[in-house]
Amino acid sequence: MSDSDQMDDYADKAGRGRGQRSDVGEGRPGARRRPSGRRKVCRFCADKTLKVDYKDVRTLQTFITEGGKIVPSRVTGNCALHQRALTVAIKRARLIALLPFSTLVL
Amino acid sequence: MRRYETIFILRPELGEAQIAESVKRFEGIVAGGGGEMIECDLWGSRELAYPIGRERRGVYVRLDYAANGAILNEIERNLKIADNVIRFLSVLVETETDPAKAREEIETHRRKQAEAKAAAALAREKAGSAPVEEIPDAPEGLGEPAPEGDESV
Q: Between the CA of residue A13 and those of A32, A50, B15, what are the distances in Å?
């Protein structure tokens, strides 16, 4: 709680209001536009039976790119908690050759 | 005791007997140190995501067991020495476990899955020849959709 309050304090000092984000601004020069469309939800939060498991290759594969990189939560819509768990799981899967480190150069 | 999970990859050219032998060896280490096996899972030969040394395939074995740090160290030391093992990974699953309970859980989970499979097959038969994939107890309408906060800014 106190953390987020402090974050807002910093934001105020930076001249931004509470709740405003630099990347949502409309038409402001240099500001990134938020792409419109469906709001993404974390798949692991939506389906409680789905667990993050480093042995579950098929699920993990949906969260890596063709090159083998981990897809950012910004793209997948995963919540921070599950994205962190997912990152660990993918790295474990890589260690035992269930997932590639990279498929770009072999 | 802690619950650990160790996956190791054996060379693909090993025979059934050799695979069984090395699995037994590591199970023996668990038992010898006072640990308890929960499950031994042979995945069999599968392709590696990338070549390790000269190998492109490997035989995956998963050991699920209750043990302590000393036993784990002993297992890892032996995995490092063994020539047939090309890669291994140990993961802490639970910090406090009851092996009998864990085995029971696995058993009930298996039974439930088998039942669900049988029920699905039966439903498909009833529905006719057309195989329709349907999950009966899909969670629907998970509360109201969260209000869009960013839109108002």
A: 21, 42, 69
3-state DSSP call for residue B72? helix
The whole-angstrom separation of Cα B43 and Cα B59 is: 7
Give residue-wise pLDDT tens across range A39-88.
Answer: 778 899 998 888 899 999 999 999 999 999 999 999 999 999 999 999 99
Q: How confident is the model at residue A30 (pLDDT cuts 50, 70, 90)?
A: low
Please name the member of B58, B148, B150 whose beta carbon is closest to the beta carbon of A97: B58
Q: Tell me the CATH number at B40.
A: 3.30.70.60
- Whether B81 and B111 share a structural domain: no
- Is residue A2 scored above 60 in pLDDT? no
- Looking at the fold, whether B104 and B84 belong to one and the same domain comes out as no
Number of domains in chain B: 2
B109 shares its domain with B84: no
Q: In the 8-state DSSP scheme, what is residue A65?
A: -
Shared-domain flag, residues B39 and B110: no
Q: Which pLDDT belongs to residue A36?
A: 64
Q: Which residues of A touch B60 (CB under 8 A)?
A: 96
Tell me the chain B residues in contact with residue A20 when contact means C-beta distances shorter than 8 Å.
Answer: 153
Contact indicator for A61, A87 with CB cutoff of 8 Å: no
Same domain membership, residue B111 and residue B53? no
* Domain with B108 in it: 98-128
Q: Is residue B111 part of a domain?
A: yes
Q: How far is B144 from chain A (nearest CA, A)?
A: 13
Question: What was the pLDDT predicted at A16?
Answer: 40
Q: Answer yes or no: do B57 and B112 share one domain.
A: no
* Residue of B53, B69, B91 lying closest to B1 (CA atoms): B69
State the nearest Cα–Cα gap between B74 and chain A, in angstroms: 20
Cβ of A92 under 8 Å from any chain B Cβ? Answer: yes
